[in-house]
Design goal:
- The chain has a domain at 20-83.
- It has helices at residues 20-44, 50-63, 65-80.
- By secondary structure, the chain is mainly α.
- It is 60% helix and 0% strand.
- It binds zinc ion.
- The chain crosses the membrane at residues 18-44, 50-69.
- Pfam families: DUF983 (PF06170).
């Protein structure tokens, strides 16, 4: 991750340890995935054995870990880092 945006020079780390909070956001995303897959398996696969739940959720969360990492950091920046979208920079 670069220290600042190459286009608008917005710093990506407002303070040291800023992204510790993203860990909790990522945990929330993972919980959402767990609940969604759990409900889908329960209602669509007719309540399979426990190992099916565990392996399916683990595989799904591992598959989307790169996305969770990036999006939780982006949410953290937008929510607590003072970052705002500026359409003037969108076309550069
Ligand atoms: Zn930028």
């Amino acid at each position: 991750m670069p220290a600042a945006c190459p286009v608008c020079r917005q710093t990506y780390e407002p303070e040291p340890g800023f992204y510790y909070g993203a860990m909790y956001i990522s945990s929330g995303f993972s919980t959402g995935i767990l609940l969604a897959i759990g409900f889908l398996l329960y209602y669509l696969a007719n309540d399979p054995p426990l190992w099916v739940y565990i392996s399916t959720v683990a595989a799904a969360v591992l598959a989307v870990t790169p996305l969770l990492f990036r999006y939780s950091r982006a949410v953290m920046l937008y929510a607590f880092g003072g970052t705002r979208f500026d359409p003037r920079y969108a076309t550069r």
